[in-house]
Automatic annotation (TrEMBL), chain A:
Conjugated with ATG12. Residues 13-104 form the Autophagy protein ATG5 UblA domain. One of its GO terms (molecular function) is Atg8-family ligase activity. It is found in: Preautophagosomal structure membrane. Belongs to the ATG5 family. This is Autophagy protein 5. GO terms for biological process: autophagy of mitochondrion; cellular response to nitrogen starvation; piecemeal microautophagy of the nucleus.
UniProtKB/TrEMBL annotation, chain B:
This is Ubiquitin-like-conjugating enzyme ATG10. GO terms for biological process: autophagosome assembly; autophagy of mitochondrion; protein modification by small protein conjugation. One of its GO terms (cellular component) is cytosol. Coiled coil: none annotated. It comes from Phascolomyces articulosus. Belongs to the ATG10 family. Keywords: Autophagy, Transferase, Ubl conjugation pathway. Pfam families: Autophagy_act_C.
Length: 266, 161
């Protein structure tokens, strides 16, 4: 039985946006003192946000070609290789707009990966796409068989917000089948906790798994439970969500499910 | 988390002595072997530190500034591999050198990308049992980034099963 690709849900996930208020760091003196307001796609990445704000940053006298731009939320540097929506859900903030600060100096090399450029973000994105392919099928040949143009198109359509162009390519990678091996899934407990990624199969002795089964295997001390709830794209997920449907329709553009475990009460 | 195997090679630091006017500078390199759930193979993570440049940060395991990839190429990575700089950090068959958050420690480490490991290990698959896998794997990819193994590990002896 094949899983139907839910294009309505998929489009809603793609179109998810976050209002963000970006303040400048007062200790880095600038002519502009007003914060910047933008609406960022949850599926986007901070280096792409930086690129969209290039004209504003240039107006402040910042030479972007020579500057490592980074952002923090309440003093915590934000990982530029994580999708924006994941960063927001992970922060636990309920603010709208989400209030973060931009920095042009003192890049925290010990905390953030170096060189937060669009090219570096694209490299890491493609590494995740390859890993998702390997997990689902046991080889990376679907990604490696894409033409160079198609490979670039995955990232470019994400950065230009072109849903149809993205899926023109991604449909070849994510085609559902009955012989999928492992679920591309990363679980986040909090910023201080290492990311949890384990080898998780789609079925249990032929029976399709639901999200609750997977979480019980990986986090037996938290699931089943009344206080912990899985969230992705700001959506609290029911535990009886079929994992194959979730992987097909709720993944980020890198074809991974990124799930944050939150407190039920928050 | 018990599936993650970590071996910290702090007992075998690679050191490079630089002669400077102020005296000698010592670099320390640490290597970690971590299991990759994505590719189901071991991955070699590494970072180098220059104790001479005093910059304490709360997350540094070692005192001193972390070395950049260029500095690692200069001091740690074997000369034969220097040309790989032109080919996007590729260490011939082993995979590329990239950077990501250490899976357990959570802060930036360099690592050799594991996507080629399976096919590399298949080339020498005769006689590899689970106990010799790590030794064989490390002997293949370690030396190019300065992580060498004593030949004693490969001598058969009554205690060395």
């Amino acid at each position: 039985m094949s899983v139907v690709f839910d294009d309505i849900i998929s489009k809603k996930i793609w179109d998810g946006k976050l209002p963000i208020q970006i303040s400048l760091n007062p200790s880095e003196s600038h002519s502009l003192t007003e914060p910047i307001f933008i609406e960022a796609a949850r599926c986007s990445y901070l280096p792409l946000v930086t690129e969209h704000l290039a004209s504003i940053y240039n107006g402040l006298g910042i030479d972007l070609t020579n500057t490592d731009v980074w952002y923090d939320y309440q003093g915590e540097p934000l990982k530029w290789h994580y999708p924006v929506g994941l960063l927001y859900d992970l922060s636990g903030s309920k603010d709208r707009p989400w209030r973060i600060t931009v920095h042009f100096q003192d890049f925290p090399n010990d905390i953030l990966l170096k060189s937060p450029s669009v090219e570096a973000a694209q490299d890491i994105f493609m590494a995740m796409v390859k890993q998702a392919d390997f997990l689902r099928h046991g080889t990376t040949k679907r990604v490696m068989n894409l033409s160079k143009n198609d490979q670039s198109q995955l990232w470019e359509s994400l950065s230009l917000d072109r849903f149809d162009e993205y899926w023109n390519v991604n449909q070849h990678l994510i085609a559902d089948s009955d012989s999928l091996r492992y679920v591309p899934l990363r679980i986040y407990l909090s910023n201080q906790c290492p990311v949890i990624q384990e080898v998780v199969s789609f079925t249990n002795e032929g029976n399709p798994k639901v999200l609750g089964d997977v979480l019980k295997d990986i986090l037996p001390d938290l699931f089943p439970s009344k206080s912990a709830t899985p969230m992705t794209h700001g959506i609290r997920l029911p535990l009886d969500t079929p994992i194959r449907w979730a992987s097909q329709n709720l993944s980020f553009p890198d074809n991974f499910l990124h799930v944050v475990i939150c407190n039920e009460d928050s | 988390m018990d599936e993650l195997l970590v071996l910290q090679e702090t007992s075998d630091p690679a050191t490079a002595k630089l002669s400077e006017q102020e005296g000698e500078t010592h670099l320390t390199v640490e290597y970690h072997i971590v299991y990759s759930p994505g590719y189901q193979v071991p991955v070699l993570y590494f970072n180098g530190y220059d104790a001479g440049k005093k910059k304490r940060t709360p997350l540094s395991l070692k005192e001193g500034t972390a070395l950049s990839l260029d500095e690692l190429y200069q001091w740690i990575i074997s000369k034969e591999m220097q040309q790989s700089l032109q080919h996007g950090n590729r260490l011939s068959q082993q995979g590329s050198i990239s950077q990501e958050d250490h899976p357990i420690l959570g802060f930036p480490f360099y690592y050799i990308h594991p996507c080629e490991t399976q096919s590399m290990m298949r080339l020498i698959s005769h006689d590899i049992n689970i106990h010799s896998y790590i030794k064989s794997w490390l002997s293949l990819i370690g030396p190019t980034i300065g992580c060498t193994l004593s030949h004693q590990l490969f001598l058969s002896s009554p205690t060395n099963k």
